[in-house]
Amino acid sequence: MASQSLRVEPGLPYPLGATWDGKGVNFALFSAHAERVQLCVFDHRGQREIARVDLPEYTHEVWHGYLPDARPGLLYGYRVFGPYEPRAGHRFNPHKLLIDPCAKALHGRIAWSDAHFGYRVGARQGDLSFDRRDNARGMPKCMVIDPAYTWDGDRHPRTPWSNSIIYEAHVRGFTMQRDAVPAALRGSFAGLAHPAAIEHLQKLGVTAIELLPVQAFLDDRYLIERQLSNYWGYNSIGFFAPMPRYLATGHVGEFKAMVRHLHEAGIEVILDVVYNHTAEGNHLGPTLSFRGIDNRSYYRLMPGDERHYEDFTGCGNALRLHHPRVLQMVMDSLRYWVEEMHVDGFRFDLATTLAREADGAFDPHSGFLDVLRQDPVLGRIKLIAEPWDVGVGGYQVGQFPPDWAEWNDKFRDIVRRFWKGEGGLIGELAGRMSGSQDLFGHAGRRPWSSINFVTAHDGFTLRDLVSYEHKHNEANQEGNRDGSDNNNSWNCGVEGATDDAAVLALRARQQRNLLATLLLAQGVPMLLAGDELGNSQDGNNNAYCQDNPIGWIDGPDRHDNDLFDFACHLIRIRREHRPLRRRNFLTGSRFGDNGLLRDVVWLAPSGEAKTQEDWNYPDARILCFLLADPHATDKSQSADAPLFIVLNAHHDDMAYTLPDLPGISAWLYLIDTSTADGKGRQAPVEPRAQVEVAARSVVVLCGHHGTGAGG
């Protein structure tokens, strides 16, 4: 019990959270409906409560106080007093120690017990009952930090969207089996900042790393009881604090050092953030922070039934972003990660929920989207929406404001189906390869609005996509019922592991085909970490709870180095050839001195433009097109040269006639996925010659200007 007395002064109602000013610490907590707020201070281990003090002032619905004797490293939490009336939306319980929503650091892990619930678990009245047990010993504690850090002139890379290549990775999974990273640093921000990790990213050629959630989250009780964990981290409990388990040093500065080192390598840092819900779940969930601070303000409650929560996320609750103080918290959090932590952008999980207004409908001019758009800090960083949630009207691909990019699952699905061998898809595939203008060609949006991906953390890895037709999620202990059944995958003839050389060769080619399609499309490609190495999760398409070798990137002994070399080759081609990363949508319009070139021409095997009959052929499994850059500045350079591209998902070989274009003396192979290295033949090919495109393969040739065939 508290024994120490603390000096307390009125302090200020801003900023929210605990703020060290060099002399003392100001504490400020928003709660519109609380009757009293106590600050609880703990010993250096976070085990024993050594002092309590009431925050003395209440200004604009913010409780605040200043402790002149407090210093960085102080561990604290809150107890908030008020009515416990679930039917009226109030769930105050001062017996529960609560996490400060604006805490900059957390200390310790939750030790689950029934004491973390505001009601008596198992009581006949359910959540209408009241629990008087103290949960403090098993709660993480908030930590006051000193934010000072020497950035040594750190600069944001600010890679243009059209030049961006995103690498989606998990902090732990990326380094846990990377031998070149010291064992003590693996799975941490320091491990990701290690030269061996950064060297891999640089060699691959990506421009940005998008990290799965690193803001503080909790492991669900049911997962801990199964000896699993919330590996992916989509279970937020603190929007300002880095996840403690990712800090090898225990200091927040480790995250900043990681960002600085990645920036020095020219790599941007994008955070996957979860502001749509919290770890407190539905009305039967625990009382850990927001619920006990001011349930009615922080959460969306059911109209006419405030005991229960609106749930657009499938996770039990949804944050009430149309409340000004909740919106303020989210905006303050975003600005904190940009200004104090120097990140370059955000990917918003289930972003549709964030843009739902008070009536529950998605609004492209919601308060959240409008405030983001005009913010002087956040208006100039990269913003990516996962443009759906599980509520009514939740699928909103293409409907976010023009300064947003969006995950394009239509690209994923059509590319998978095409290479699986389905016919009659070339019309839609052409649209996706062109940047999905049908989805994003409005309000001044550009091809970069489409974040193209074939695989992501949620689903099969690339290797598993060509090795399994069915999910194998038994390790999740949910009877293989979890995870999507709609994978559009093909096992190439055998389910899972095999020694069949022909099957393995086809799988290797299919991986090259899928990677090539991703990197050849207009828009922004996103590569799943480990796909370039042939990483497998043994058929698990929902490894959210697998903080073990299933969820980690395979160790070096399982790496496919040939595939890595091919991925590097693909990214180099994309970066060196401007027609692949256009800033504007393709139009098919003529350009050039003689008007004989178009920015895109869709070709039949004869070399002539496709007819409507060609497009409508129901069994079509081949897409061929010519790309050219109307803004080419130096036609003698390969970067500006036209590209001839064939995607052949048919089980038969096909011959295509190369175009005869002004100034093009020869065509040079860049890619042929039917070859072991994927690079194709070395000898140039003359215009009007026929090129053989093997079954299930991608071929790309580059036009060469001049009299020779070099370059």
Written account of the structure:
The protein has 16 helices and 30 strands. With 711 residues, the protein is α/β, with parallel strands linked by helices. The protein has a domain at 579-705: Golgi alpha-mannosidase II (Immunoglobulin-like, Sandwich), CATH 2.60.40. The model has no long low-confidence stretch (mean pLDDT 95). Helix 10 packs across helix 11 and helix 14 packs parallel to helix 15. The strands form 8 sheets. The chain has an 8-stranded parallel β-barrel with strand order 12-13-14-17-18-19-20-21. It is elongated and about 90 Å long. Helices cover 20% and strands 19% of the residues.
CATH topology of the domain at 579-705: Immunoglobulin-like
The low-pLDDT segments are none
Q: Order of strands side by side in the largest beta sheet?
A: 12-13-14-17-18-19-20-21
Supply Rg.
Answer: 28 Å
* Number of distinct beta strands: 30
Q: What kind of sheet is the major sheet?
A: 8 strands, parallel, barrel
Instruction: Report the end-to-end length measured between terminal Cα atoms.
Output: 77 Å
Helical amount among residues, as a percent range?
A: 10-25%
Tell me the fraction of residues in β-strands, as a range.
15-25%
Shape: elongated
Q: What is the overall number of helices?
A: 16
CATH architecture of the domain at 579-705: Sandwich
CATH class (first level) name of the domain at 579-705: Mainly Beta
CATH superfamily of the domain at 579-705, called what? Golgi alpha-mannosidase II
Question: Overall mean pLDDT score?
Answer: 95
Task: Give a quick set of tags describing it.
711 residues; alpha/beta; Immunoglobulin-like; 16 helices
